[in-house]
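Researcher: Next sequence.
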Amino acid sequence: MNVKTVKAIAVCVLSLAALPLVAADMPRSEWQALVGDCAQNPQTLKQTIAKLSAEDQVAFVNEVNGAISKMPGSDESRAAAFYAANRAAVSGASKDNLANVLAEVFATVPPEYLTEINERFATDLFSRTANPARVFSDEEFTKLATSTMAVINERCQKAENSGVRETFAALMFIRASGGTPADLAQTLVSQFPDAQVRETALNDWIKPALGDGQEQSYDPMLAAAQAGEEPDHAVVAQINSGIQGGDALLANLADATDVSSSALSMAAGAFNPPGVAGSSATYAPGIGLDRVPRAYIQSSVALGGTSEGPNSEVGGGSGSGGGGSSENPYYSKNRGSASGRGSRGESDRYGNQ
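Model: Next structure:
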């Protein structure tokens, strides 16, 4: 072996040594063993999700949310756990996979807890004004929101209560926009796959959820999903008070999405739900022992019907079983009221004074 050959080999060895080491993705069996711990410890979750492949990041969020759904405790403690865990998940996800992880959040968190997540994600993570160094025009923000919503919509179409979930995601972007452009709600809702959901979301869900010309309420959305009761947001904020300041993630979405391209560039084939052997099932509040009875939203009595309409024997609440003058006791008059009592001191939904 001549001197030139030896030198050439030495150069190659030094070049290879100088290359950064790329850590292998954490094996699925290893992160599955950490799901329980991560459901209770956001810092551990954030560190773990950063070590996963893009596909496993999505599957991991699914399993963590399944674990939180089974945790004991009050609505408020569970809402705090969902917020802390999913915030850590989107903060720790790889930048180019953020839209898919965000889609999994809205597809797997039970609807009653999306009341908390849509509001706090909008202010804490995706606010348009969170990062003064990265200013988005109305056009850029609209393209970014519609591109991300295309991914969310595709994923939520595979979940129960897809229209309600898509609307919660749209509400997050509407809140994060700071109020402009004025037609953002119409733009985002126009992407929803189901025509009837588009009409209902725009006319019956979004305005009450935003408190647009009325008292803020998620009741129409939660009734449609036959979801559990909305948590008391003040209590949830108190439980989560130790969480540090927000992460500005809107720029991460923008960096992973060419906002100058077609608004639907991320839609085609953006997400296929992972098939994970033994993974936690998607939370289904309308099935089995977890089922929560829901009254028809316009009913006058507790058992006035379903989300499809009033029962014929009750007649929209004007028949037997309470008469037409009483109000539906299931829904609180003050949003997030843990007691379920109305603003005038009436009995709670169990008939207690």
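Model: The CA atoms of residues 212 and 289 lie 36 Å apart. The longest strand covers residues 305-306.
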